[in-house]
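hiii so um. not sure if this is the right channel but i have a protein structure encoded as tokens and i wanna go backwards to a sequence. like what aa goes where. can anyone help
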């Protein structure tokens, strides 16, 4: 039986923030990867009032 899987090391593709608490569109290869943090998605107008992606937005 194996133990818990460690979380990958992520950095935001837009601002470079390391390991954001909330993120979208993660891409992970061999334990490291990129994502888009919620702050960057919100700043670009990709989210609706409750924090979900707006219709037609694909990441």
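sure thing!! here u go:
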């Amino acid at each position: 039986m194996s133990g818990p899987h460690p979380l990958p090391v992520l950095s935001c593709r837009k601002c470079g923030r390391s390991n954001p608490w909330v993120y979208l569109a993660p891409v992970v290869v061999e334990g490291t990867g990129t994502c888009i943090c919620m702050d960057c998605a919100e700043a670009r107008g990709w989210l609706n009032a409750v924090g979900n992606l707006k219709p037609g937005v694909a990441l």
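oh and The chain has a mean pLDDT of 92.
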